[in-house]
Design brief:
The complex is a heterodimer of chains A (599) and B (297).
Chain A (H helix, E strand, L loop, with lengths): L5 H6 L6 H14 L12 H9 L8 H8 L6 H14 L5 H13 L8 H17 L14 H22 L10 H14 L3 H20 L1 E2 L2 E2 L8 H5 L5 H10 L23 H6 L7 H8 L5 E8 L13 E8 L3 E6 L12 E5 L10 E5 L5 H7 L4 H10 L18 E6 L2 E7 L9 E5 L4 E5 L5 E5 L2 E7 L4 E4 L5 E5 L3 E10 L6 H9 L3 E4 L5 E5 L5 E5 L5 E2 L2 E2 L8 E2 L3 E4 L2 E6 L2 E6 L4 E5 L4
Antiparallel strand pairs in A: 1-2, 3-4, 3-22, 4-5, 5-6, 6-7, 7-10, 8-9, 9-16, 10-15, 11-12, 12-13, 13-16, 14-15, 17-18, 18-19, 19-20, 20-21, 23-24, 24-25, 25-26
Helix pairs in contact in A: 2-3, 2-12, 3-5, 4-6, 5-7, 5-9, 7-8, 7-9, 9-10, 10-14, 15-16
Chain B lengths: L1 E7 L12 E6 L2 E5 L6 E7 L2 E6 L2 E5 L7 E2 L8 E6 L7 E5 L2 E5 L7 E2 L12 E6 L7 E5 L2 E5 L7 E3 L5 E6 L7 E5 L4 E4 L7 E3 L6 E6 L7 E5 L4 E4 L7 E3 L8 E6 L7 E5 L4 E4 L4 E5 L3 E7 L2
Antiparallel strand pairs in B: 1-2, 1-28, 2-3, 4-5, 5-6, 6-7, 8-9, 9-10, 10-11, 12-13, 13-14, 14-15, 16-17, 17-18, 18-19, 20-21, 21-22, 22-23, 24-25, 25-26, 26-27
The chains are: A alpha+beta (599), B mainly beta (297).
Chain lengths: 599, 297
Amino acid sequence: MTPSSHPDLLQDPSGSSYADRRDALIRYYADRQRDGDQRPALGYIELAARLELDRPMETVVPLLDELLSDPTGDMFWMVPMALVHHVGRDRLPADVLARMRDLWRTYTPYRGDTENHWLKYYASLYLMAQLDPDSGPETWFNGRSARENLAEAESYIDSWIGLTVAQGQGEFDSPHYLPFFLAPLSLLHGFAEDETMRQRAAMMMDLLIAGFAVNSLDGLYAGAFSRIYPEPTLERWRNGSTTFAWLLFGNTPCRPDPINNVLPRPGYRPHGMALALALSGYEPPEVIRRIATDRSTPVVHRQRARTRHRIRYSPVRNAPVLKTMSTRTEYAVGSMQGGLLQPIQQHTWEVLWATENPFEGFNALFSVHPYAGPLELGMYFAEHPEQMMHIVIQHEKNTYDKPDKWTGGSPFEQVAQWSDAVVALYDIPPGTQFEHVSTYLSRTLRQLEAHPSGWIVARGGDALIALYPLTSVEWRDEPGGDRRLHHPHLKTGLVVQVAPASAYASLDAFASAVESLELATSTDPTPSVQFTTLDGHQLDVTYGDPARIDGQPIDASAWPLWEGPHIQSDGHRVTMRHGGLARTLDFDAMTITDEVPTG
Amino acid sequence: MHVAVLETRNYIVGEANAASGLYIREGRGWRHAGWTNLRCTAIAQTPDALFLGAGNGVLRSRDGGASWRMTTDWRITEGLDLVASPLNPATLIAATAYGLWRTRDTGDTWEAVPPPGRQPGATFTSAVVLDALRSGRWMIATAAGMFVTEDEGASWRETGPRVEVRALAQSPADPSLWLAGTAGQGALLSSDGGETWAPIGDASSTLYAVALCPFDPLCMAVGGYQMGVRLSSDGGASWRPSAPSPKAPSVYSLAFDPNQPGRLWIGTMGDGLFYDAGDGWQDAGLPETTVTDVSFS
C-alpha cells in the first residue's frame, strides 16, 4: 500500500489484509485537516494517529494545547485522552505530558449511567493510574491515590467481564455503541502493563467481535439491537460498527467520520474509536474473520443477553434477552422476544437484505409499536421518570414520543422466530399513548404487491419477503419514497416469511408457495398465530404464552449464552468455529486455545 | 447555605455542559465549589466535613469544598439522598437507586444495609430520614413504599400504603409529624411517628419534595411534577398553590430556612432557586439549573 491509497481502500477493501486496513486507517486520521466547522473537529483521534506515525511535533502540539485548554466529554474524553497519552508518552515533550497528566487532577469527569460509560471510565482510569502508580490522592480528580484507582478500576472491569460472560451484555449488539466497548478494551489490550489484564481485554474483544460477526451481513450490523439511533436504523452503514467491520473483516466499504457523523458533537467519535483498535496491536483471529465474511451456508444462532440494570418497576435486576439470528448470503433475519428490554433505542426484530452498495441504505423491514412512557424510563434511570420524558425529547432522542418513530421497544410486543420466519404480536391496552403499530416498507423494495390472500410480498435485493398482517392496514407514504404499513388496531400483529430468490422461479412462485402454507390467525381474545413455515415447522404463538415449535414450548430457561454452528458456550467457555478452525475462550482459566485443521 | 445542582438545562451526558454540582451562598451570589457535572442530588454536613451524594457516589470535603475525595467505589452509584446522624457525626447513610449504604467512619469505609424487602422497587430508595426522637430508628421512601427500622437497618417493616414514595420529612417542630410525597397519589401525613398515614390534599399529584416548617408544625409545603408548590398553614387541611417560576413548573427541592422563620426555599427543575419570605417569590439565582437539595450551615 502507498501512503496515498487510503481513500481507495475505504471504498473497496477487497483483497486487503488487516494490516493494510489498519495502516490505512491510521493514515486517514493522521492526514485529516481542519475543514471549517466540520464535526467532529480535529481532535485526539487525529493526534493519536499523527503520534503513531511520528509526524512532526508542530502538527501535534499546537492542536493538543488547544484541546487541553477546554476538556469536555467526561468518559468520552477519557478514552481518547488516555490513548494519546500512551501513544505519545515516548514522543511528546515532557511539559506537554505533564499538562496532560494534570488534567486528571483538575478535570472531574462524570462516570455516566450506562455500561459503555463505565467501561470507558474505568479502563481509562486504570491505564492512567498505572502510568503513575505511586502518585498520591492529591494528584487525582477523585482524591484517591493511583493504587486505589487501579484497584477499583480492576475490580469493576473484572465484575463487568464476569457478568457479561455469565448473562451476556447489557448494551448488547449495538451498532452505535459497539465501538465504545471495543475502544476501551483496545486500550487495555494495547497498553495495560499487567499481562493478565491484557489477556482479559483480548478475550472480551474476541467475544464481542465474534458476536458482531454472527449478527452482521456484509459488515452491517443486523438483527435485534439494544441501542440504535433512528437514522442509522434505516441507513445501517452510518453506524460506527461499520468502520470496525471494514477494519476487522474487510467485508464492507466504510465512511468514517467526519464523512459520516450521526451525532454532530465535537468530540463524539464512534467511527474514530476504530483507531484505538488499530493502535492496540489486536488482530482479529482468522476464525472470527471467516465467521463474519462467509455467508455461503445458511446458519441460525441463538444468543442470550440481558437487560441493563432495572432499578424499579421490575421483579428482576437483569431480565434475560433471548435472541435468534438467521443469516445467509442474501439476507439476515434476527429478533429478540419483545418487551421493554432496553430504554428508548431498542430494535426488536428485522429482515436485512444484502445490497451491492451498502451506502444506499434502506435495506431493512421491521415493525414497531411506538411506545413511550415514564415506566420505561423509570425502570432504567434514577431520575424522576415523568420529568425525564421532557428531558429525553428535548435532546438527541427527540423522536422518543413520536407516533411515527422507527426505534424503541414496547411492553405490549411479543416476537417469536424460527429460522427465516418471524411472528410479531401486539396487544395494546386501550389508552396507551399510541394505539397503533407501524411496519417499515423500504423505498428499495421491488415488486411490492398486496395479494387478495392477505399476504404482501416484495423483493429486497435477493431476498423474497412475504408479510401477513393480522388486521387491516393503511398504506402511508413516507419521506424519500418509503412506505409505512399503519396497523390501527390494539390487537394486531404480522407474520413474516423470507426466502432466497434463488429458491424460486419468480416472486409469484414464492407468493404461491407461501399462500399454500397453513396459517390461522386470531385477535380475540388476544393475538394468536399458527403458522407452518416454509421449512415445514409449526410455529404457534399466542400473546402472553411461550411460543411453541412443533408443539413444544420454547424453553427460555435453557437458552444458552451462545448456541449455533459458529459460536457455542458451555458455562464460562465460549468456542468459535468455522471449518476446521476453532478458538475457545475459557473465562474461568482466562485462557485462549486455538485449533487448526490437521493435515 | 449550600445548594446542590443536578444539572443545567440542555444537559447531555458527555457533552460540554455548564457547571453543576455544589454552590455555596456568598452574599447574594453563589460560588461553585469543587466538582462539576457529577449529577449531584444531596448534601450532608458534619462538624468537620461536607458530603455530596451524587451519580458518581459520595464525595467528602474537609476544607469547605476546596478539595474532595470520592469516598465510595463502583458499587455505590446513583445516589439519591444522603444524611448524617445527628447523634454520631461519623455515621452517614446514603440512599441510592440500588439500596442503602452506611459509613461509621465519616466515609472511610461503606457497608451495604440489608434491603427492606424483596418487593420490586424496595431497593430504589429516594429518601432516608433518621428519627430525631429515637436513636436507631430510620424511615425510608422507596419505589415499593415506606419502610421503618428500629435497629439501624438490621430489620425492616412496611409502613403506609404500597405506593411509590419519592420524598419524606419529619417535622423539626413536632417530631411525631411526618410528611411523605408519592408518585401519583399526592401527600401522606402521619401524626404518630410514621405508624399510620392518611392522604392530604390533591391525591393525584406526583411529589418530588416535601417540607415541614421548623417553627410551626402546622406549616408545610409540597412540590413536584408540573405543579409548582402548594403551601398549607393549617396542618394540611387546606392548600394554597403557588408557582415561583412560570418557566419551570416542576419543583425538585423544598426547604424551610431554619435561620429565617417563614422563609421557604424552592429548587426548580430547570430554572434555578427561589425563596419566599411571605412577600412573593424572589429569584435567588442559578438560572437554568435543576436544584436538588438546599442545606443550611
